[in-house]
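Input set for joint prediction.
Command: fold jointly, output tokens.
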Amino acid sequence: MKYWLIKSEPDVFGIDDLQKVGREPWTGVRNYQARNFMWKDMKPGDLAIFYHSNAKPPGATGIARVADDPYPDPTQFDEKSEYFDEKSTEQKPRWWLVDFEFVTKFAGMVTLETLKADPKLTEMVVCQKGTRLSITPVSAADFKHVCKLGGWKP
DNA sequence: GCCAACGTTGGC
DNA sequence: GCCAACGTTGGC
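tokens >
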């Protein structure tokens, strides 16, 4: 089992939205590194820290689970979508995604400030300066520690 | 293949 | 709103 951190802007789609719908296709990822994580490395059952970016304050707000195997992101074929990619074909899709399902919402947000200040989490990618990647791997130890800070037991 | 210009992310 | 980081694009 692997662990991840996925970023989302709460103004667009936050932890409350995931709780409401229960399950959501992670559309719109247009970064090859992030895509490769979903395409090649994620397995159903993997757990991810749900992180609010561009938020006040930013931080970890809950946990989501990989709900299925990767499949082509449908928005890349939709001319009306902002994620439309004219260079992608159904025969050779460029962008892949997985669905995430809601697992839990932390009782209180674990802010980025808290994460950065924690000596146990210095290796976490999201804590490092200038990381813009929207999906990053998280070590099992870091994952457990963030859950503990969020008051949740896996 | 290099690299300057440009666009985006995201914390502050 | 600013700006650092860094991915992408396109001219050469």
